[in-house]
Amino acid sequence: MNALYLAFAYLRYHWGRSLVLVLVAALILFVPAATQVLLSTSERVLLSRGAATPLLLGSRGSQLDLTMSALYFSEERPDPVAMREVEDIWDGGLAVPIPVHTAFSSGGFRIVGTTLDYFDFRRLKLSEGRGLSLLGDAVIGADVAKAMGRGVGDALVSSPENLFDLDGVYPLEMPIVGVLAPTNSPDDQAVFVDIKTAWVIQGIGHGHEDAVTAAEVADGTAALSSAAVLQYQRITPDNIQSFHFHGNQDDFPASAVIVVPNDTRAATILKGRYLETGKPTQLIEPGAVVQSLVDRIFRIKTLLDVVTGIKLWRPSRPSVWWCS
Amino acid sequence: MLDYLSARQNILYPYRITPALKLDSNAHARAEALANACGIGDKLDRHPNALSQGEQQRIAICRALVTQPKLILSDEATGNLDPDSKARILELLFEQAAAASASLLAVTHDHELLPRFDRVIDFAQFREGVPA
Amino acid sequence: MARTLCAWTVAVISALVPTAVAAQVKPRIVAVNYALQYFTERLVGDHAEVVFPVPAGVDPAFWRPAISDISMIQGADLIVLNGAGFATWVDRVSLPRSRLVNTSAAIEDQFIVTERINHTHGDGGEHSHESLASSTWLDPMLAMAQADAIAAALIRRGLIDAEELASNLQGLRSDLAALNEEIELALSGAESLPVITTHPRYAYVARRYGLKAYALDWDAGAMPSPDQLSRLRTLMETNGAKILIWEAVPPRVALAATVDLGLTNVIFEPLAQTPVQQPFIESIERAAQGLAEALRGQTQI
User: Fold this and answer.
1) How would you list the strands of the sheet with C243-246, edge to edge?
2) Which of A231, B46, B119, C23 is most buried when burial is the number of CB atoms within 10 A of its CB?
3) pLDDT tens digits, C153-207
4) Domains of chain A, residue spans
5) CB within 8 Å: B16 and A14
6) Which chains have at least 3 CB atom pairs separated by less than 8 Å from chain B?
7) Which residues of C touch A236 (CB under 8 A)?
8) What are the φ and ψ backbone dihedral angles of B57, each rounded to 5 degrees?
9) What are A260-318's pLDDT values in tens digits?
């Protein structure tokens, strides 16, 4: 009681000093608490996405890059994996393979070329419009719609890239046909297209007389196209029939393949098949990759806690706070 | 003297740390009466650092007397006081001691005060006696 | 009284609900041509509704589905594709891969390349497309392989009980095998016989039964133009063919014109579209009989 009386009198009398002291103490406590909250939130988000994706097939190389590009649509670009691998898994009958092609972007958001199975797998629902139907259609995530201020009936154009150094690959204009309901996952920040549309952007598939020219863009009328003034390509009801793909579809690329095994036994058999180090592909468990990433983050957090701990000890010598 | 307590709070502080004592209106009245007697009745709401050293010493004396102790120990209690105040404070000390039938045990270098005490011990000469 | 009424209502509702649910949950299978619809119906029986979405009079190979067609197809429990380049719309439409079955995947090594088309684009670079003969189902042996693929997909999708399917598949396979034998018998001795077809759809039948087919590209059931007739005459003169295979019954005048050229007319419906008269097996049987009769006529001549 007496101590409280004195403490209160002290704080009231030295109010300025006390205020600084309280603020500093709050800050010292806030940093680890905030780090904890931030980390546990990101850990939850990261781990839930990882756990929701049983297996991931991709080219050999960094497992983290593969996971980040296929699950979180990051900018990492793992070596492409051939669609033959997808067919192999179909033929095996042990799992449903879902290819994802994440090499391109539009307005800062990743274009995710995939199959309709992806929407079933992630249980994505539309809040507006319809799902992917025709070559060139795009369905955008909730955050993309908000950030770009676009919706059904608008269009977006893929960012020009010279990724594969192919001649004559022009950005593709894609009509937005649907907007997804928010999911609080990376799906909110993606532009979904059919993987065939992604191949069109890549230049593997193309149409004839499919060019939209600078002149057309300028005055909105159809003009004779010339390769010299090409701006971007557009798939229209008039030219869609001329779109075709070159080569064997088995050789076409995907960034990674999400593999959804029928059961644990199927998963084990599949993992065994890809253990061979000579194979150009690897089958990984994204959950484990994300877990190791989270563990690493927590090691850094522990370090941070130790540093904060040292800081918290220092106030026993008040000079640290207001004299030095 | 606690610099973050006002003169009044300092005077009444013994009531805070002694469970047997009750901080009531009598205590407040006594504190004010003592302060008035010491000439600091108008400065009770000031904090020590807004008071002179003499005034602070008077607060200390008020604080010693407020609980009406049976024994008052004083070590150079009037050392920092001007002659007028010194006389007044000493008067107060003796009055309080008499009123409460208390003993006043004082340590001082001031020989002028000696005649007012019943017994004097002179440590310099280490002799004991009754003042003449 | 109220309690009795309530009990009755519950009884009536519970009697209605299973019927409504049963009607709703009957799986839907979409096939891209009539032949595949026929095979699937034979295999799945009453367990699913098999839809062939192309309207009558439209060639399923060149059909362009509307958005409403596409969403109906996307919602199907199984989508039966022919492969071999048939129905190119499937390349331009988003379909759920897990519910697709390419019935000719196992017979790709038997595909017939009909022509190679070279072309260039505005931005330079010549490239070529291979064109495949797509009417695989007209060869009963290839049709059998396609039926096997459908059966496997039905099992994978859990649309029919394995035992019942095995028996249905056995029935269809034996019908196709019988059809094959029947045609072989009818056309025995006709090896390397030249025939002219009004459309290049008969490559697989011709190969199976050793016919030498020379293809024109006429519209089914239409009156040929004088130019087309003169091209037909040239073809007859260069390879000595005496038999002309039509996809559909042409105008009487057209038949008379070809008879005048010394040709025997045979109607052989390609069965990509629903046949006018008889179902798949009977339709091919009839065509084979017509062909056999024409051959007999020729040998007599």
Assistant:
1) C212-215, C194-197, C243-246, C264-267
2) A231
3) 999 889 999 999 999 999 999 999 999 999 998 888 777 788 899 888 888 988 9
4) 2-44+294-322, 55-284
5) no
6) A
7) none
8) -65, -35
9) 999 999 999 999 988 877 888 999 999 999 888 888 877 887 888 788 777 666 554 44
pLDDT mean over C6-13:
44
Residue B34 near residue B11 (C-beta atoms within 8 A): yes
pLDDT score of A55: 94
Q: Which residue has the tokens 């007999």?
A: C296
pLDDT value, residue C4: 47
- Which residue in C216, C190, C207, C177 sits closest to C291, CA to CA? C190
Residue pair A138/A173 in contact by the 8 Å Cβ criterion: no
Q: How far apart are CA A99 and CA A117, in angstroms?
A: 9
Integer Cα distance of B48 and A237 in angstroms: 91
Cross-strand partners of A173: A157, A234
Residues 49-88 of B with CB under 8 A from A: none
Q: What is the CATH number of domain C26-180?
A: 3.40.50.1980
Q: Which of B2, B4, B17 to mutate to test the interface with A (most CBs of A within 10 A)?
A: B4
- Please give the structure tokens belonging to residue A155: 């269009």
Is the minimum CB–CB distance between A226 and chain C shorter than 8 Å? yes
Strand order in the sheet with C28-31: C49-51, C28-31, C78-81, C100-102
Is CATH 3.40.50.300 what the domain over B7-129 is classified as, yes or no? yes
CA distance A289 to B82: 83
- Residues of A within 8 A of C119 (CB-CB) are 208
As to burial, measured by CB atoms within 10 angstroms (0-12 exposed, 13-18 middle, 19+ buried), residue A131 is buried
Find the residue in A nearest to C126 (Cα): A246
Q: How far is CA C93 from CA A236, C65, C203, in A?
A: 13, 9, 28
Give me A223's structure tokens. Answer: 């003009």
Confidence of residue A163 (pLDDT cuts 50, 70, 90): low
State how far the Cα of B59 lies from the Cα of B40, in Å rounded to an integer.
8
Q: Is there a shared CATH topology between the C26-180 domain and the C189-300 domain? A: yes
- Looking at the DSSP bridge assignments, the partners of residue A95 are A261
Tokens of C162: 């394995």
**Average pLDDT, stretch B24-34?**
93
Which residue of chain C has the CA closest to A168? C123
Contact A211, A233 (CB under 8 A): yes
CB A86 within 8 A of CB A97: yes
The C-alpha atoms of residue A314 and residue B11 are separated, in whole angstroms, by 35
CA dist list (Å): A207 to A210, B11, C231: 5, 98, 32
Distance, in Å, from the CA atom of A302 to the CA atom of A312, rounded to the nearest integer, reads: 15
Flag if A134 and C92 touch (Cβ within 8 Å). yes
Structural contact between residues A70 and A294, judged by C-beta atoms closer than 8 angstroms: no
* Residues 6 or more apart in contact with residue C234 via CB below 8 angstroms: none
Q: Which residue ranges make up each domain of chain C?
A: 26-180, 189-300
At C271, list the tokens.
């069965």
- Please state, in angstroms and rounded to a whole number, the distance separating the CA atoms of residues A275 and A270: 9
- Whether B20 has its CB under 8 Å from any CB of chain A: the answer is no
- Residue A33 and residue A148: Cα distance in Å, rounded? 34
CATH number, span C189-300: 3.40.50.1980
